[in-house]
Amino acid sequence: MGVDAPDPADRQAYLEEQIQRQKRGEAIDVEWVKAELERVRRQQIASMASVQRNLRWLVLGAAALLLVLWIKGGGPTQGRILVPGLVLIGLLTVWVLRRRQR
Question: CA–CA separation, 5 vs 11, rounded Å?
Answer without folding.
Answer: 8
